[in-house]
């Protein structure tokens, strides 16, 4: 126990700093993933043919082992002298988040009660009015579930980003493994787990706040 | 007024849902589209606000060919009520009701006034219910909201697709009565889909009976029951329809039209019946007792006359003849 106290005394500022790095990397990736995934998911509800293909590609992306995807990023981004570091890690995380976000958005919009959609059209709503006023609000819980899956997934996968020099909590774990330092490994892992739990709780709060009372459950 | 000119609907060139349908819904009247499922009644209704395209023919709404109008504008000028779940659960009652006025860009003040007026029409407190969400209301209240939502922008024409179909029989009758009372005030031109014969008889100025996309008969309810044009119509309404239609009238109606009979004090042991009882129950009471009269009482219990089988029969003929002459004038 005393050892832990001493370890934390020395390393706490560094752990905190790496946690913040990790959170920034994941948040930025999620924001960009949302900006791509939600509109794409909505668009796919109007294009059945493309929907099958895109969802298939997104599924395949998720099956690529994370370490391999990070590896593939290196030669590609080397072309613009960004082979290691933040950018390739960021792009990989954006790709990983696409499946849960696109799929949940697509499914949520598709599953909006057809009678509700019929009423909206029958009353003379234009497509964008129908989406903004009826379909997206009613699809919100399922879309948010996808976002939460993506965030937790990215916090975990973000650990691997340390291997390509992107920093974050993965640094503690990789260093711990190479040095055989259990304190580093355990503190890194706990920080990742804690970060995932906190992020999920915050998103749940946001979800409840922005979901109509009627749909909260 | 809605006029259908040789309207035909074909799906993918093969199956025909509606065949050469030709009829007019007069200003301020309710026409009920009736028929077995798959007869094309809902398709016909949805062609009016262009939720279904028209393969051949045309639909004229108040002198405008529906094809020439912008679909969005057309729909905003037509009230639309569906069976259930048409209310949006993410919006309050007030937001739900004011959707079309909102789309049309009405001012806040105008919307508020209209909302208060509409809620008064269905007897719900605007302040109390306005802020509630649809699922906090009973099924009957939700359907009332669905009806006034369609009335919100005061459209001349309304389309109602089995609006009361999901309600239990007691609530359904109550809301039908309420709706007829509202209709007497607002006088909309209404196309109403139903598969319930009793509902059609009650609501319709005219019934359009369809089978396999073709018109079987287009007439007033009584004319249809008394003079069915073909075997299908008479079978659809059944042999006992005339008697069943008596349930739509009360002793009071009879009293107002032909008057009650004198009480025969010499007959002992006769039963009494309230003046608001319907004639079908009255008839069965008459048939199930020895005496050939039943004493009619008012709400205070006072005896105001008596009723006999002859009177009921007379009323039945009078009503049917009366409705025939009305339909000929119209």
Automatic annotation (TrEMBL), chain A:
Similarity-based family: Belongs to the binding-protein-dependent transport system permease family.
Membrane topology: Multi-pass membrane protein
Gene3D superfamilies in the cross-refs: MetI-like
One BP term from GO: glycine betaine transport
Superkingdom field: Bacteria
PANTHER family xrefs: GLYCINE BETAINE/L-PROLINE TRANSPORT SYSTEM PERMEASE PROTEIN PROW, OSMOPROTECTANT IMPORT PERMEASE PROTEIN OSMW
Major localisation: membrane
GO cellular component: plasma membrane
Cell compartments where the protein resides: Cell membrane; Membrane
Name this polypeptide is given: Choline ABC transporter permease
Keyword Transport: yes
TM regions (residue ranges): 23-45, 57-77, 83-102, 150-177, 183-206
Record keywords: Membrane, Transmembrane, Transmembrane helix, Transport
A Pfam family matched in the record: BPD_transp_1
InterPro entries from the UniProt entry: ABC_transp_perm/SBD, MetI-like, MetI-like_sf
Domain ABC transmembrane type-1: 19-207
From TrEMBL, chain B:
Any one GO MF annotation of this record: ATP binding
Sequence ranges assigned to domain ABC transporter in this UniProt record: 2-237
Any Pfam family hit: ABC_tran
Reactions that this protein is recorded to catalyse: a quaternary ammonium(out) + ATP + H2O = a quaternary ammonium(in) + ADP + phosphate + H(+)
Database matches in InterPro entries: AAA+_ATPase (IPR003593), ABC_transporter-like_ATP-bd (IPR003439), ABC_transporter-like_CS (IPR017871), P-loop_NTPase (IPR027417)
Entry protein name: Carnitine transport ATP-binding protein OpuCA
Recorded superkingdom: Bacteria
Phylogenetic lineage: Bacteria, Bacillati, Bacillota, Bacilli, Bacillales
EC numbers for this chain: 7.6.2.9
Family: Belongs to the ABC transporter superfamily.
Subunit (UniProt): The complex is composed of two ATP-binding proteins (OpuCA), two transmembrane proteins (OpuCB and OpuCD) and a solute-binding protein (OpuCC).
Protein biosynthesis is among the record's keywords: no
Record flagged with keyword DNA damage: no
Species in which this protein is naturally found: Jeotgalibacillus proteolyticus
């Amino acid at each position: 126990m005393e050892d832990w106290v001493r370890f934390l005394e020395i390393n706490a500022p560094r752990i905190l700093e790496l946690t913040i790095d990790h959170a920034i990397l994941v948040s930025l990736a999620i924001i960009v993933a949302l900006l791509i995934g939600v509109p794409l998911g909505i668009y796919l509800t109007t294009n059945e043919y493309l929907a099958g293909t895109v969802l298939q590609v997104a599924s395949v992306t998720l099956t690529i082992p994370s370490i391999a995807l990070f590896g593939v990023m290196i030669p590609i981004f080397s072309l613009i002298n960004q082979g290691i570091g933040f950018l390739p890690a960021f792009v990989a995380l954006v790709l990983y988040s696409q499946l849960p976000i696109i799929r949940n958005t697509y499914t949520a919009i598709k599953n909006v009660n057809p009678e509700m959609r019929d009423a909206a059209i029958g009353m003379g709503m234009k497509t964008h009015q129908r989406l903004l006023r009826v379909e997206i609000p009613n699809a919100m819980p399922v879309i948010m579930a996808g976002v939460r899956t993506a965030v937790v997934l990215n916090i975990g996968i973000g650990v691997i980003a340390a291997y390509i020099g992107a920093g974050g909590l993965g640094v503690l774990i990789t260093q711990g493994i190479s040095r055989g330092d259990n304190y580093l490994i355990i503190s890194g892992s706990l920080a990742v787990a804690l970060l995932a739990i906190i992020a999920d709780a915050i998103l749940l709060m946001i979800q409840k706040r922005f979901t109509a009372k009627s749909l909260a459950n | 007024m809605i006029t259908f000119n040789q309207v035909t609907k074909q799906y993918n060139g093969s199956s025909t849902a509606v065949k050469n349908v030709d009829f007019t819904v007069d200003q301020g009247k309710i026409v009920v589209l009736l028929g077995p499922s798959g007869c094309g009644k809902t398709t016909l209704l949805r062609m009016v606000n262009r939720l279904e395209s028209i393969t051949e023919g045309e639909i004229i709404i108040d002198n405008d060919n529906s094809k020439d109008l912008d679909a969005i504008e057309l729909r905003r000028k037509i009230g639309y009520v569906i069976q259930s779940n048409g209310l949006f659960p993410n919006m309050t009652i007030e937001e739900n009701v004011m959707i079309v006025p909102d789309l049309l860009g009405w001012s806040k003040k105008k919307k508020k006034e209209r909302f208060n007026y509409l809620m008064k029409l269905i007897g719900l407190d605007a302040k109390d219910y306005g802020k509630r969400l649809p699922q906090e209301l009973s099924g009957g209240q939700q359907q009332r909201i669905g009806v006034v939502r369609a009335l919100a922008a005061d459209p001349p024409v309304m389309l109602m697709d089995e609006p009361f179909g999901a309600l239990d029989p007691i609530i359904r009758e109550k809301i039908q009565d309420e709706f007829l009372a509202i209709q007497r005030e607002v006088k909309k031109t209404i196309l109403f889909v139903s598969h319930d014969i009793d509902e059609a008889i009650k609501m319709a100025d005219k019934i359009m009976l369809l089978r396999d996309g073709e018109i079987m008969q287009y007439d007033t309810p009584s004319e249809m029951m008394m003079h069915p044009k073909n075997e299908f119509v008479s079978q659809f309404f059944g042999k006992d329809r005339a008697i069943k239609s008596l349930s739509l009238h009360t002793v009071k109606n009879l009293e107002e039209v032909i008057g009650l009979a004198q009480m025969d004090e010499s007959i002992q042991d006769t039963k009494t019946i309230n003046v608001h009882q319907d004639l079908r129950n009255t008839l069965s009471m008459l048939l199930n007792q020895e005496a050939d009269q039943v004493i009619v009482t008012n709400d205070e219990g006072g005896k105001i006359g008596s009723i006999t089988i002859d009177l009921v029969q007379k009323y039945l003929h009078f009503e049917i003849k009366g409705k025939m002459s009305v339909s000929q004038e119209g």
